[in-house]
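Take a careful look at the sequence and tokenised backbone pasted below. I need to know what the token row says about the fold.
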Amino acid sequence: MASLKVSVVGADSEVWSGTASMVIARTVEGEIGILPGHEPMLAILAEGEVRVTAENGDKVTAMAADGFLSVENNTVTIVAGNASLVK
């Protein structure tokens, strides 16, 4: 089964990285779900949650704002001016 390589990066550090089966993020055009095999894209993030379902089933939630999301070759990169994990 294919998986996504995901990195969530804030202005000063990496917030989370790993392999995932799904990523859901809020963009300025609305919420988007990303699964393995997603077409390449670049989107501007809206302030809100980024929800990652890790490959092992764990759920990871981060708050992100002021940045972008890119998808290419099953790699999802989220770069935000403000990003932090939600406990």
